[in-house]
Specification:
The chain is an alpha/beta fold and 248 residues long. Helices cover 41% and strands 25% of the residues. The chain is built from eleven helices and seven strands.
């Protein structure tokens, strides 16, 4: 992966990331199997940018012979702690520590955007066997919900982002043009305490780079606003997973 200071920031909050980040719905793996043209059970899979193992654990539970590849030592330590049965190597998507033609499926959950496609695309093609599949996916907040749209506008103002709301198709426009991707979008929800929702926000790389004082100030204000929206202290987060799969 492109190990920028922003990418490295996740290591500073690895335990919080593991505890509070959302995972992914089973429908994502169903769609990966459909678009890859094979079941994940028994498949040789590498999950790159595995982080603390959110997607890796789902692939393992589905029966894949999955290997986690993660560049951050602290994130990798969390993965080892929580999933000691899953093999793990330190490495990144720009220079995969994997044998050529060794994989049925290569996955990037919430991590492809940290790579340099000039390196990561040739590397993906190198390690996939003929007929193998590259699967990329992301969780994005569903901005059709008013409270999420309003929160996102506050985040954009904080980080001096664009005035316009995020375009749901933006993930797909950034896909490598040399690969023939099929895309899907899937909605899902999770219900969490407000404290978990705020801790998830704090684990974003932008906040990790912002610093504790400014982060705490924003989250305190956000807590006051969301207490009015969710007076019982329970937040229903809605996400849209963008999935893209290309076969070699």
């Amino acid at each position: 992966m492109k190990i920028t200071p922003q990418a490295r920031s996740f290591d500073e909050a690895a335990a919080d990331y593991a505890e509070n980040r959302p995972s992914y719905p089973p429908t994502v793996l169903d769609a990966v199997e459909e678009l890859a043209g094979r079941p994940l059970r028994g498949a040789r899979v590498a999950d790159v940018g595995a982080g603390t193992g959110l997607a890796t654990a789902l692939l393992h539970a589905r029966g894949a012979r999955v290997l986690a590849v993660e560049p951050g030592p602290a994130m990798a330590s969390q993965l080892r702690l929580r999933h000691p049965e899953i093999p793990l190597v330190l490495g990144d998507g720009n220079n995969l520590p994997l044998a050529s033609g060794s994989l049925d499926v290569l996955t990037y959950a919430q991590s492809w955007h940290w790579t340099d496609p000039r390196s990561s695309v040739p590397e993906a093609l190198r390690v996939l066997r003929p007929g193998g599949a590259l699967a990329l996916w992301w969780n994005d907040s569903d901005h059709t919900l008013p409270w999420i749209a309003e929160q996102d506008a506050r985040l954009r103002r904080l980080f001096s982002g664009p005035d316009d709301a995020p375009d749901p198709a933006a993930r797909f426009r950034g896909l490598p043009p040399e690969l023939d991707f099929t895309t899907r979008r899937m909605s899902w929800t999770r219900t969490v305490p407000l404290t978990t929702h705020l801790a998830n926000l704090a684990s974003y790389s932008d906040f990790l780079m912002l610093g504790k004082e400014a982060t705490d100030t924003f989250l305190d204000a956000e807590r006051n606003l969301l207490n009015k929206v969710f007076p019982d202290g329970t937040v229903e987060e809605r996400y849209v997973v963008g999935l893209a799969v290309a076969r070699r």
